[in-house]
Amino acid sequence: MASKGWFNLETAAGTMPETQFFEGDSAFKMLGLTRMQRLYGFGGCATHSRDSSSRIAVLYAIGTVVALVGTGFLLGFMKQLKMMFKPVRIVATIVFLGAIGLVFVGAFVIKSDVLCIIFVIIQYLAYTWYTLSYIPYARTAVLKIFGM
């Protein structure tokens, strides 16, 4: 008995042509790229250089800054700054903003991929702790979950 549903590989095999990625209905059809040009593009995007981790870390830090600016538009920038530096979240804010700065230092001054990734992890954890401060009892619940 053939299975029905979204995970039926036998019936799906006949519906997807193997050349779909190179010919026909491509997402970038409007660019008019040849098969070889698309392969070059794929290779260029998939290639990892020595400092790819620091590039990712810098882009992540920039994205976080953009997200903060976005919430500033919603709340008002002065109100957001006042809320960020309330006693309940001042430590998380300082660690968070410091980690963003250290990502850039690690990428452009020290030029260390490992440090960039460490600073991104610290940034993520500080941002999570900072965000939890806006939800009543969220920090307490997280500490309880981790047995602290």
TrEMBL record:
Q: How does it sit in the membrane?
A: Multi-pass membrane protein
Q: Does the keyword Ribosomal protein apply?
A: no
Q: Which GO terms describe its cellular component?
A: Golgi membrane
- Transmembrane residue ranges: 57-78, 90-110, 116-138
The entry's keywords: Golgi apparatus, Membrane, Protein transport, Transmembrane, Transmembrane helix, Transport
According to its UniProt entry, the protein's GO biological process terms are:
protein transport; vesicle-mediated transport
Location(s) in or outside the cell: Golgi apparatus membrane; Membrane
What the protein does comes down to: Nonessential protein required for the fusion of transport vesicles derived from the endocytic pathway with the Golgi complex.
Family of the protein in this entry: Belongs to the SFT2 family.
**Entry protein name:** Protein transport protein SFT2
Q: Which organism is it from?
A: Antrodiella citrinella
